[in-house]
Amino acid sequence: MPRPLMPGPPGPPRPPHGDPGLQPERTTMAWGRTLMSFVVVSAVFLRWLPHHGPFVLVLFGLSVLTATAIYLTQRPRYARSARGIAEERTEPEVGAVLATTAAMLALGGLGLWVVLVLV
């Protein structure tokens, strides 16, 4: 009786769609740059702390919270987008863009208030 063949080591995972240069990858890279921008901004806010006082921790917390939200939603967003490409039907991520815009406007407005009013 012949021995059954053992399967070889698994290869790289199969991509969820046929073209690796499509929109999901570019969008993921753009969200990664946005995440990194919020991390850098939070570091700048920490540098403001000695000069502008403890209110800057609110700005720091908001920027870290936004960066964390982007990080935690990155993988599901990519999966939805790749699945949409495979099914030839995608939906825009309006909620994520609006939430990031709102956080950016809040950080900008509060940052201006800290620099101009709390000096």
Kindly describe this structure:
71% of the residues lie in helices and 0% in strands. It has 119 residues and is an all-alpha fold. Helix 1 (23-52) runs antiparallel to helix 2 and helix 2 (56-87) runs antiparallel to helix 3 (94-116). It is elongated.
Q: Helix/strand-derived class? A: mainly alpha
Measured as a percent range, the helix fraction is: over 70%
Number of strands: 0
Main beta sheet strand tally, sense and closure? none
Average predicted local confidence, pLDDT? 85
| Molecular shape | elongated
- Rg from Cα: 21 Å
Helices and strands, in order, run as HHH
Strand content: under 5%
Low-confidence stretches: none
What separation lies between the terminal Cα atoms? Answer: 86 Å
Indicate the multimeric state.
single chain
- Helical stretch tally: 3
Can I get a quick summary?
The protein contains 3 helices and no strands.
Give the key terms:
mainly alpha, elongated
SSE topology sketch:
Blueprint: H1 23-52, H2 56-87, H3 94-116
